Amino acid sequence: MLLSGAEIILECLLREGVEVMFGYPGGAILPTYDAMSKYPQLHHVLVRHEQGACHMADGYARATGKVGVAIATSGPGATNLVTGIATAMMDSTPVVCITGQVPRPVIGTDAFQETDVTGITLPITKHNYLVGSIEELAYTIREAFYIARTGRPGPVLVDIPKDVQNQKIEFVYPEGEIRLPGYRPPSSATEAQVEAVLELIQQAQRPVILAGHGVVMSGATQELQELAERAQVPVALTLLGKGAMPESHPLVIGMMGMHGEAASNNAIQEADLLIALGMRFDDRVTGNLKTYSPNSRKIHVDIDPSEINKNVKVDVGIAGDLKTVLRQILPGVKSVQHAEWLNRIRDWDEDSDERDILKTYEGDKLLGAQVMNDLWKYTGGNAVTVTDVGQHQMLEAQYYPHQRPATMITSGGLGTMGFGVPAAIGAKFGRPDEEIWAIVGDGGFQMTMCELATAMQENIKINIAVINNGFLGMVRQWQELFHESRYNSTPMFSPDFCKLADAFGMPNMRVTRREQIEDAVKFARSQPTAVLLEFVVEKEEMVYPMVPAGADLHAMIRRPKPNERK
Amino acid sequence: MDQQSSKHTIAALVENKPGVLNRVASLFRRRNFNVDSLTVGRTYKSHISRMTLVVDAKRTDARKMISNLFKLINVIDVKLVSSEPHVSRDLALVKVRSDDADSRNGLTLLCERFPARIVDIGPHYAIAEITAQEDVVEGFIEEVAKIGIVELVRTGVVAMGRGTRILDTEYEPAIPVAANGSAHQVY
To answer: Which of A161, A389, A523, B52 has the fewest CB within 10 Å, making it most exposed?
Structure first.
């Protein structure tokens, strides 16, 4: 079959099981867009900015576990992908980016819209390619998908010169095994490692499991729950680990880290054994490494060998697929009780309960925390939420418990503002039958709000909750706590978000009082199209508890109890 | 065997493809690994190149460096050569003043004491070549400096495990390397 390079690209995407691609055309990728008319099975979503394309592919990947695809032209098209690629890299999500490049004869001449994209994206991709000839093209795309989804997943970029897209060859799909001599993702634990793990679990009096994104990505949720239940180990979750175990489960003690539950952080500090599963001891999780969980032995299971002993020295480090490793360990885990330890954690929890703003707040302004709690309540706790970055993100993590894996999608590692709306669109393409809520702040929303047009053009049903406090709230919180309330460049003018939604033809509603939330959620759910709800909330709300950056994990700034307040 | 215990020597087999050296260099920069020397050249297989890295053990954790090198898709195998018996060599070319009898005689004597030889000599300057272990090369340079060095170049260390310690790969690429090899330079 005589095919052009452009057709080979689409043929390969089809064979990888791709259904939808997010992108933006331009000169150097035009042959590929032209060939799309021959491949109607591949749905192309026209975005409004390439950053949105990459976030959509990322949101799709996180929602489905499949590889998301973003397409852009050379030069500015490709450089606009960069934030999205770095976001996917930090959170290990499988994305393949296809970019057009200027024709080979003019590469290196500063041709129109030429940029060294493989150079720029080298440190923020798992791997990248500049395709040198049409003969390599199909094989390269196969490799790109394979690398993106296996091992520790991540973004892979394939840069394809325009003349390669236009060239034609007799096409034979490269079947058979992929041969990458330098790529051998680890799989299982050795017998000695399994023995060592079992012995540490057996000896532990105050164990804690730290469950991260890897639990969700390797599909090890059942195994995690079995381990926790059998050995009666409380489970603390990372931000991206939310949903790794149902949060209503009595052994789940909540999120850990900077804005984690006090009970989780205290338990980690007092533990005699940490079992870290598919997480990477990020600084937002550990606080001061010198005082981090000082009296515990540590087990660390991660797919990436370079994560073992990177930040925290461990006693047993296992590089392997979490599901495989847990299945190796489980048969040897004996049933034990840690009643005293669990009671201790419960006491910390009760103390937190007394400080909870939902129970103690007497003001009349709407609070972000109330919005999250009520969104949880009126969506039956069953929606897929996609957040942006900032206070609303942490409030979501605290007040919207998730029961299923991959139901909270958020930019954790890179903390990318502007992620929420496009990632929600991508997630909806991946899981069309789910109720998707984009929960965003007024700041991050304005970074990518152009994608409202994409949602309307694609007739994609998402619900957007803009939590508007008129501030860059989390930065304002840091200014209040650490910079004597000098609110430099955080108060924020915004357009009338409801009128803005009107301009996009998007149904909308503004909520200023708590009793309106139920109706607003009902309204959003009743509309067939994307909906925008603006929640006008208290301007100077604080997210507690908070571990200041680099401080000891147990040195949390707490919300005072009612009787301790001035 | 390893006279320079404060240094680690790492050998890596990499695919001989464009941009691989850049990937390795970029890794060291972004992970803040400090490299004393890095050499790269082809092996006896045209599709495989070999890199030798020397790092200061006090400043760089060799284990972290190796696990990060393994993450690069084009890196086929990595070995900490200095943890086992090995041979290592550094080559230096030194241009020295040779405009009087003292300087010429001095250089000739040094070349007898060290594994070095004079490879070029003229009325003003001579070039001496030395191939030896890194510390021997340094000793030589120290001595030659007394005569008067005007220019110096070193290759950086290359190293190989002794005896049956063999670093090689069976890998053959799926797409054959171009016959002229020009598109597949490491650089």
So the answer is: A523
Q: What is the pLDDT of residues A231-241, one digit of tens each?
A: 999 999 999 99
Q: Is residue A299 a part of any domain in this protein?
A: yes
B177 pLDDT above the threshold of 80: no
pLDDT digits (tens, 9 = 90+) for A269-305: 999 999 999 999 999 999 999 999 999 999 999 999 9
What local confidence, expressed as pLDDT, does residue B151 receive? Answer: 98
In terms of domains, do A370 and A344 share one? no
Residue A184 in any domain: the answer is no
User: Which ipTM score applies to this complex?
Assistant: 0.91
Same domain, residue pair A162 and A60: yes
Nearest residue on chain B to A178, alpha-carbon basis: B174
| For range A422-434, the mean pLDDT | 98
Q: What is the 3-state secondary structure (H, E, C) of B130-172?
A: EEECHHHHHHHHHHHHCCCEEEEEECCCEEEECCCCCCCCCCC
Helix orientation angle between B20-30 and B62-71, rounded to the nearest 10 degrees: 140
Is residue A337 domain-shared with residue A405, that is, in the same domain? Answer: no
A18: exposed, middle or buried (Cβ count in 10 Å: 0-12, 13-18, 19+): buried
Give the Cα separation of A160 and A229 in Å (integer): 50
Q: Are residues A24 and A47 in the same domain?
A: yes
Assigned domain for A185 exists: no
Task: Tell me which residue in A123, A132, A183 faces B30 most closely, judged by beta carbons.
Answer: A123
What positions of A carry a catalytic annotation?
Answer: 50, 112-113, 162, 474
pLDDT at res. A329: 98
Q: CA of A114 to nearest chain B CA: how many angstroms apart?
A: 18
**What's A305's domain CATH number?**
3.40.50.1220
Is residue A177 less than 8 Å (CB to CB) from chain B? no
> Are residues A241 and A141 located together in one domain of the fold?
no
Q: Which residue range forms the structural domain that includes residue A526?
A: 362-536
| Residue B29 C-alpha, separation from nearest chain A C-alpha, in angstroms | 10
CATH code of residue A433? 3.40.50.970
**In the 8-state DSSP scheme, what is residue A116?**
-
Q: How many helices (H) and strands (E) does chain A have?
A: 24, 20
Nearest in space to A87 (alpha carbons), one of A466, A410, A326: A410
Instruction: Show residues of chain B in contact with A123, CB under 8 Å.
Output: 26, 30
Indicate the number of domains in chain A.
3
Query: pLDDT value at position A562?
Result: 80
- What percentage of chain B exceeds 70 in pLDDT? 90
Residue A341, pLDDT score: 98
pTM of the full predicted structure? 0.95
Residue B93's DSSP bridge partners are B129, B153
Mutation test of the interface with chain B: which of A306, A312, A314, choosing the one with the most B Cβ atoms within 10 A? A306
A337 with A377, same domain: the answer is no
pLDDT of residue B180: 38
A424 and A370 together in one domain: yes
| DSSP SS3 for A526 | helix
